[in-house]
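Obj.: predict assembly geometry.
Materials: sequence records (below).
Method: joint structure prediction, all chains together.
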Amino acid sequence: GAVVSQHPSRVICKSGTSVKIECRSLDFQATTMFWYRQFPKQSLMLMATSNEGSKATYEQGVEKDKFLINHASLTLSTLTVTSAHPEDSSFYICSGSSSGGPTGELFFGEGSRLTVL
Amino acid sequence: KQEVTQIPAALSVPEGENLVLNCSFTDSAIYNLQWFRQDPGKGLTSLLLIQSSQREQTSGRLNASLDKSSGRSTLYIAASQPGDSATYLCAVSPSGGATNKLIFGTGTLLAVQP
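Observations (raw structure tokens):
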């Protein structure tokens, strides 16, 4: 299957600082990428849909000013958690599709674990 | 609003047993359903993808079925091995949208005892 790379895999930061997580599609071009969040012992919750060259679409309840998403190229999307607080500590996972459209298979990154002290 | 539920939440079986994981969804308007495996602290590995027009997919010891009208899917694992221990997630892609975003189930934590 297609490969999606996330960086960093783990990050610890102080409360109030900002953290950037990168998601790269290594062997395919992803017009659309998705960002998910997973709290301990819970399932994945979609945060936003990242569209190359345009603004991201956020799910209800997700603060767009806090979770900044940039999709500057067909192989890179970034998620920046601004002014992070301990409640933002979570596992963040991105995904992309190689085939585009609504029926394509999604491939996921390895995830990034954020711990805010 | 689409909701995806998985039963059981946790399952422990001895090595060699065949087992079935269940997934149900409330809205049958889907493009496809996908089964994933997640190891602790890791990302997701796609196991099987079933399009809405299909009834099942097979890969090795895995077989996934889809009954869209009843909102159910099962993942059958034959001859389970300790290496199959992981959390299994099912997810549906709601139809009507332009993208293939996924709604995930709650997961089944599988432990295969050697």
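Conclusions so far: The interface with chain A takes residues 31-32, 34, 36, 41-46, 49, 51, 89, 91, 93, 95, 97-107 of chain B (CB under 8 Å).
To do: check interface contacts against the pulldown list.
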